[in-house]
Amino acid sequence: MKTTRTGGTLAGLVATVALLFVVMIGVGFGMGWVSVSDNPDKSTIEIDKVQVKEDTDKAADATKEFINKSAESLERATDDLEQSADELEQSTDDQTSPEVDPDAK
Which residue ranges traverse the bilayer (predicted)? Predict the structure, then answer.
């Protein structure tokens, strides 16, 4: 007997959103972006937007630097490969093979 799941897609979507929310809160606490204070009169959750901005700017700068270094490294590797190919071609051209006379036995 075949059973079908109804609402499976919606449940998966809700679970994914909930998981992302939990991860973001965990990262926020870990990075010091989110703090909770509990007083007898009220409880508050504070988000340090300045710290979030500083950290995201640092991450963006580090990413740009990584990309630039990777591009430079790739360019150097390409140049080295082209130089090696040119040297190999030159050494192959310099080597002469003896001519073989097909009629000689």
Answer: 12-34
Residue 53 is encoded by which pair of tokens?
Answer: 């901005």
64-102: pLDDT as tens digits? 999 999 999 999 999 999 999 888 888 877 665 556 566
In this structure, is residue 6 part of a structural domain? no
For residue 86, is it within any domain? yes
The span from the CA of 21 to the CA of 83, in Å, is 52
User: How open is the CA angle 33-39-43, to the nearest 5 degrees?
Assistant: 50
pTM of the predicted model as reported, rounded to 2 decimal places: 0.54
* DSSP 8-state code for residue 40: S
Residue 100 lies in a domain: no
Distance CA 32, CA 98 (A): 76
Provide the number of structural domains found in the chain: 1
